Amino acid sequence: MAENNTTGTFLDGYRTEAGIQRLHGTKRFKKTDEKSRIIRRNKEAARIANYRKLQDTVFTGYEKNLYNNETFKFTTKLLNWNPELYTVWNYRRDILINSKFPGMNIDQKHNFLEQELRFVLVQLKSFPKCYWIWNHRKWCLKEDLRADYDLEMNLINMFFQVDERNFHAWGYRMFIADCIKDSKQTEEDRMNLYQKEFVFTTRMIKRNISNYSAWHRRSVLVDLLINTNAKLPKIIDDPKQELYRNAFNQKDKAEFLRLEYEVFLNAIYTDPDNSSVWIYGKWLFSDSFYDDMDFNFGNSFLDQAYGAVNELAELEREDMTGKENQWCIKFNLYLLKFKFVRYRKCGDINKYPEFLKSKFAELKKKLIKIDNMRKQRYLDFSLESA
Amino acid sequence: MNEHNDDELLLVEKHTNYIKDLFRKPVYLEHWMADHLKMNALYWGICALFLMHQEDAFKKEDVVSFIIKCYDNKYGGFGSAPRHEAHILSTLSALQVLKLYDSLDALSKEQKDKTISFIKSLQLSDGSFEGDRFGEVDTRFVYTAIQSLAILEELDKSIVDPAVDFILKCQNFDGCFGMVPGAESHAAQAFTCLGTLAICNSLNKIKNPEALEWWLSDRQTASGGLNGRPEKLPDVCYSWWVLSCLSILKKLDYIDAESLVKFILRAQNSETGGIADRPGNECDVYHTFFGMAGLSLMKKGDLLLIDPIYGLPTNVTKTIKKYPY
User: Fold this and answer.
1) Mean pLDDT of chain A
2) What is the DSSP string of A51-117?
3) Helix H segments across B25-87?
4) What protein family is recorded (chain B) (predicted)?
């Protein structure tokens, strides 16, 4: 019977090669003819029957609240087949809570959950972007009073070897760091954990400066470390890190900026077209650091950055035979405005140099030309706009 | 190559058939294995049909009775398919589709009340929402819970205020928002956060909107397509996640519509219908809907206008009572 004549009940399922939500980047399939569709259907018939039978068994158990070894094994089998079945993950946890955990002491439960984590790991390797699997791993760790967080950190690094921007792996790292933090008794210990994480972001950025996820994580950690009263201990033999540690310990924002400015400069000279670094750089020159900074000191620092980026812009023009690097111009346009805002806050707005105002207008005009896609945002961008 | 050469044309008839075909009897194993997404797919597919003025493509009674079959008697709310447990993601999709067909009254009083208490029970003390009883927290669930309650006209201060506080904590150094406080910015999370704030009448609480607007408009790549995070490839679905935000912020003109329209239209499959994540790739209903939703926001292709806050046509959302009541 031809497929087109198949009349199923509405919403029995999905038909043809059409999909619901594919893994991003799936290349277009080859067109199939009726004959090859029939062959595929016949080939899959037995597996479909097995799958449907297994699914029915598991859902019947779920509906009847059957919590035992046998139903547990069925969930393993079905989840191995299809880990997206969130209802089955829930049922599996129901079975654990109601039939496996009762009667176990802390060690027995730990040993049991280790097996469960191994099961989850196999799943994650095949489906590193499946929310439900990551969630189950988190749930297991919360249940396990003897959870080994260091092991989890190593596992995350393994995921970063494959994809250093895996959103889930970064989120999971944050979760594990929070678990470790909660297990610490003192503020010093908690902040020291963040110091270790900060060192980790340095390493990730060194490995690849375009890793925006690492820059982001760094921004969160800096915010915590620069504002704490806790004193951080020395953790590694690295003179650069020692300077950071001192800056954090002194709550010295200016010193931190001096150190981080070098990292920023190095990064934009390494890869001037990489947006990650420029966005991070913008943050370095924002209220987060300048709120209580001396007016003149802050300005001289802004001027220094402006000059360095200007130089890079010129080098880029030479390299690219006259073509502009828009990130350089965008960044300096932003700096000019930030400087204006600082003048306004300090009450002597009339002293904002006229030549900077004309420079601002000039850069704006340039951007409208070379980044015409976004011309309206430049038209709206003025020294006074909020 | 069967890519469409005419960049100006939305293939309405092809896409309509593509979506209609999707919901007939399952044939291959992968169709049987897609139960976890069925309710979301129903919303994507049916909303796309409504946008194309094809609201009669399915029989209303069929759709409504399917949705009622997905109601979870034990916990209240809706599962992704019959027999599946209630989850906030499928609950919102179910309510959205019922709302599209003006059929919220298909729910009994008891079902409606139990759905409301299911959603409310998911809110935690910090204002965030879990997806279901097993604790995953994410701004996606805040948005889906808040919109569900908005459709049911059950928002109140005790729910809204903490939810708004939680969302504001998710804003990052770059101006954009993440899944939870401290998590990396992502365009889809920008939508869930801005959408929540808009429904809660709290857009004025966003700090540093200019940085956010710049971050969002920087998502447009040289190809015209939008990406979801810095240094990633463009993808048709961000035509919705990014544009809806810019539209909510009234900055739709911060990207170049013409090249984005072309990018979306080139991702159509002119033989089978449907839209893919990128030109030349395989289609699915998720990208078909979000590509179309982006086109609607840019007023291209004679589509119904979609509401950037709710992801439903404006003629439907105008009937939703707006908070504060």
Assistant:
1) 91
2) HHHHHHHHHHHHHTT--SHHHHHHHHHHHHH-TT-HHHHHHHHHHIIIIISTT--HHHHHHHHHHHH
3) 29-32, 38-51, 60-69
4) Belongs to the protein prenyltransferase subunit beta family.
C-alpha span between B248 and B245 (Å, rounded): 5
Confidence of residue B28 (pLDDT cuts 50, 70, 90): confident
Predicted confidence (pLDDT) per residue in A7-23, tens digit: 334 444 443 445 666 66
A173 touches chain B (CB under 8 A): no
Question: Among all chains, which residue has been given the structure tokens 């009263």?
Answer: A229
Spatial contact of B184 and A167, defined as CB atoms under 8 Å apart: yes
DSSP B92: H
Question: Are B66 and A10 a contacting pair at CB < 8 A?
Answer: yes
Task: Identify all chain B residues contacting A19, using CB atoms and an 8 Å cutoff.
Answer: 30, 282-285
CA-wise closest residue to B44 among B24, B15, B65, B68: B15
Separation in Å, CA B16 to CA A12, B265, B275, B276: 18, 15, 12, 15
Contact criterion met (CB below 8 Å) for B100 and B46: yes
Report whether A156 contacts A176 (CB < 8 A).
Answer: yes
Look-up of token digits 């097995």: A50
Contact B25 A8 (CB under 8 A): yes
Q: Which domains does chain B have, with CATH numbers?
A: 12-317 (1.50.10.20)
